[in-house]
Specification:
Layout lengths: L1 E6 L6 H12 L2 E4 H10 L3 H11 L6 H12 L7 E5 L5 H10 L4 E6 L2 H8 L2 E3 L6 E3 L26 H23 L4 E5 L4 H12 L7
Parallel strand pairs: 1-3, 1-4, 2-3, 4-7
Antiparallel strand pairs: 5-6
């Protein structure tokens, strides 16, 4: 069983790389961000709360994040292991997670702030089916329209320049120290997140001693 955490500032490609790892390794991909966005789309009580927080460029409270993670991990559908992204984001969450699970590796995707801004501000989302697009590398066939359902694409509420700057500051102040906690256990693997997606995936697999990615 493989248990991985993937970390990196927003826009570093955590979700994309996690899904590529999941494919042929039979891992369960657990994305805290995706769980929250599902609640927003479904207009749940939690979704309304999260929407207000995201629009302000702030992070969801530790208590709410830990509750969501605990519920998701409690499903126990990860027979061959899991890769979790979007968690932990600070020291308290890291301590909570390390007390509950033995982590095999933490994949840290490194990305300069300027590249983060370029990537994040180019993202678009389909509010109907949830498909993600990036105007740099993954443009829709019809400009402004989802390839799957045809709905008009929107910018995420938390992808404004102001919200992004707030998250960058929060990341450097709170999340980077989490890496130091994991480094004490010698499980952190730093990977350059700037190259093309498949090159980053190959680098991740090489540093973890996994079979090469074959697409």
């Amino acid at each position: 069983m493989r248990k991985y955490v993937i970390m990196g500032v927003q826009g570093s490609g955590k979700g994309t790389q996690a899904k590529m790892l999941r494919g042929d390794l039979d891992l369960v991909h657990i994305s805290v961000g995706d769980i929250f966005r599902w609640h927003v789309r479904q207009h749940t009580k939690m979704g309304a709360q999260v929407k207000r927080i995201m629009a302000a460029g702030e992070l969801v409270s530790d208590e709410l994040v830990e509750e969501v993670v605990r519920r998701r991990m409690g499903i126990h559908d990860w027979n061959y292991g899991f890769i979790i992204d979007g968690f932990p984001r600070n020291g308290r969450q890291a301590e909570f997670f390390m007390e509950s699970y033995d982590i095999d590796a933490v994949i840290h995707l490194e990305l300069p702030d300027d590249e983060v801004r370029r990537r994040v501000l180019s993202r678009r989302l389909c509010p109907s089916c949830g498909m993600d697009y990036n105007l740099i590398a993954d443009r829709p066939e019809v400009e402004g329209r989802c390839d799957i359902c045809g709905n008009e694409l929107i910018t995420r509420a938390d992808d404004t320049p102001e919200a992004l700057e707030s998250r960058l500051t929060d990341y450097h102040e709170k999340t980077r120290p989490v890496l130091e906690l994991f480094r004490r256990k010698e499980v952190v693997h730093d990977v350059d997140g700037r190259p093309p997606v498949e090159d980053v995936q190959q680098a991740i697999r090489k540093t973890l001693g996994l079979p090469a990615y074959r697409g």
